Amino acid sequence: MAPTMFEVIYYSLTGNTKKLAEAIAAELGVAAENVKTKDRLADDSLVFLGAGLYGPLRGFGFKRFIDRNNFQGRKVALFGTSGEGKGKELGALEEAVTAKGAEVAGRFFCRGRFLFLKRDHPTGKDLKNARIFAREVAKG
């Protein structure tokens, strides 16, 4: 059964992941929601979860959010940014949601600006690719 709606939930320390979340949400016609203010998932939604990735650590607050929500049988698409990472950091988020029964429907990663690193990221091309990612995941 296809989800009846989409949710885009993110954590962003520097604003990079928020930019991706907003691009993804705009593509899906929904609002991006900060994990700090989001309590519960809708009953029937495909969830896009994104975080700034700091080594093996996922975005702060996601553990609590994941723990208090039911992911059993739910499709989840993951996205994230990192100043120096290569995308493998998404693995921590994937492990957390799959341990709760989620099926990962896709992954998107791009470099992010942090301090003096990658000052031009996410770029316009990164944001365009995030929108394409959202469109493709939404189509199934």
If you had to describe this structure to a student in words, what would you say it looks like?
- This protein has 140 residues and is of the alpha/beta class.
- The protein has one domain: Rossmann fold, CATH 3.40.50.
- 32% of the residues lie in helices and 25% in strands.
- The chain has four helices and five strands; from the N terminus they run E-H-E-E-H-E-H-E-H.
- The chain has a five-stranded parallel sheet with strand order 2-1-3-4-5, with helices on both faces.
- Helix 1 links the parallel strand 1 (5-11) and strand 2.
- The radius of gyration is 14 Å and the shape is globular.
- The N and C termini lie close together (11 Å).
Helices and strands, with pairings:
Elements: E1 5-11, H1 16-28, E2 32-34, E3 45-52, H2 62-67, E4 75-82, H3 90-99, E5 103-111, H4 124-139
Parallel strand pairs: 1-2, 1-3, 3-4, 4-5
Helix pairs in contact: 1-4
Question: What would you say the CATH architecture is?
Answer: 3-Layer(aba) Sandwich
User: Helices and strands, in N-to-C order?
Assistant: EHEEHEHEH
**Total strand segments:** 5
CATH class: Alpha Beta
**Poorly predicted parts:** none
Labels describing this entry:
140 residues; alpha/beta; 5-stranded parallel sheet; 4 helices; 5 strands; 32% helix
Write a brief structural summary:
The chain has helices at residues 16-28, 62-67, 90-99, 124-139, and strands spanning 5-11, 32-34, 45-52, 75-82, 103-111.
